[in-house]
Design brief:
By secondary structure, the protein is of the alpha/beta class. The protein has 12 helices and 8 strands. Strand 5, helix 4 and strand 6 form a beta-alpha-beta unit. Helix 6 packs across helix 7, helix 7 packs antiparallel against helix 8 and helix 10 packs antiparallel against helix 11. The two termini are 46 Å apart.
């Protein structure tokens, strides 16, 4: 293992960076996305300007800024994005909501010492899960679940509604919010490509594929480098490798049991996987190269892009695209 490279990667991963989810839904320039997701969750808003972001910039989770909060229609929305299921999210929500309400009091000149009853926005707390572990479409995590056998005596409750936003889950929400559906598709593509390619190649291929399919195309075209950097930063390589190893072991066990070959199944199947990956890697790269080159040429042929822009976006030389166009 390259120790220096590992230390450098860890240093980058610990930088306080936004997540891609927050970039899509918590940026002033992307308010329309936040409004669309708010409506998909049961809200009613037809003007993005009605959303007032209240995100606390100093809040960091695992070295990343992954929260979005805003006021709209008498509600205080708090959204978190997670790639692992964390049963302690209601506690994090309690702390975060307390900070948000404190900010709200300061912003509107309110005081908890007032003799008049305050009117506060009602909180709604959602955790959007996009991790590789299979979980149900929607479920609740409650603060009282952390109190053990004293839960019934608790005077406080916070409910975090977890929404599985992986492709194939919650289709009604993904259909109602194009940005969330695009995000789910991008994550799915990146994971699929990562089974064959290095992380950076996988993410770049996923971005290019989304652009070619018209999925969040404008966003990816404008923020391609930033998107790749954000996603690579939040992607925990070691955990993902562990997951792939566990999946390979589980696949090996099932196949070995069915075939009656219990001894050595894990080693044999893993060795076969590695051999197959090495043999298929070059072929896969050629196929991906051809696919994207054809797409680039198609965009030029149809007048969607100039040959200069197509070369820049798809990563080919103008000569390669011209050769295909003239072929």
């Amino acid at each position: 293992m390259n120790t220096n490279a590992t230390e450098k990667e860890l240093t980058v991963s610990r930088a306080y960076k936004d997540t891609l989810f927050r970039r899509l839904f918590g940026d002033e320039r992307q308010k329309a996305n936040a409004m669309s997701l708010y409506n998909a969750l049961g809200g009613s808003c037809d003007d993005p300007s009605e959303l007032t972001y209240t995100t606390i910039e100093g809040v960091i989770y695992m070295g990343r800024k992954n929260d979005v909060s805003f006021l709209v229609d008498g509600e205080l929305m708090l959204w978190e994005h997670q790639s692992t299921v964390n049963p302690n999210m209601p506690l994090r929500g309690l702390i975060h909501l307390a900070q948000l309400y404190n900010k709200h009091l300061d912003l509107y000149g309110l005081s908890v010492y007032s003799s008049r009853r305050l009117t506060l926005p009602a909180p709604r707390y959602f955790v959007f899960y996009a991790g590789p572990t299979e979980v149900e479409d929607r479920f609740e995590l409650r603060l009282s679940q952390l109190f053990g056998d004293r839960a019934s005596e608790s005077c406080a409750e916070v409910v975090a509604t977890v929404i599985n936003v992986n492709e194939g889950h919650n289709p009604e929400i993904l259909k109602a919010c194009e940005a969330l559906a695009g995000y789910a598709h991008f994550v799915s593509l990146a994971r699929a490509y990562a089974r064959t390619y290095a992380r950076s190649e996988a993410v770049d291929l996923a971005v290019r594929k989304c652009i070619s399919e018209g999925v969040l195309a404008d966003f990816f075209l404008e923020n391609r480098s930033e998107v790749i950097d954000l996603f690579l930063t939040e992607w925990d390589e070691e955990k993902y490798r562990d997951l792939l190893r566990r999946e390979a072991e589980e696949d090996g066990y099932a196949a070995g049991e069915a075939e009656g070959r219990k001894e050595g199944r894990e080693e044999g199947r893993e060795e076969g996987r590695m051999e197959g990956r090495m043999e298929g890697r070059e072929e896969g790269l050629k196929e991906a190269h051809t696919e994207f080159l054809q797409k680039a040429a198609s965009q030029v042929r149809e007048g969607v892009l100039s040959i200069e822009d197509a070369a820049k976006i798809f990563g080919f030389s103008q000569q390669e695209i011209a050769t295909l166009l003239n072929g």
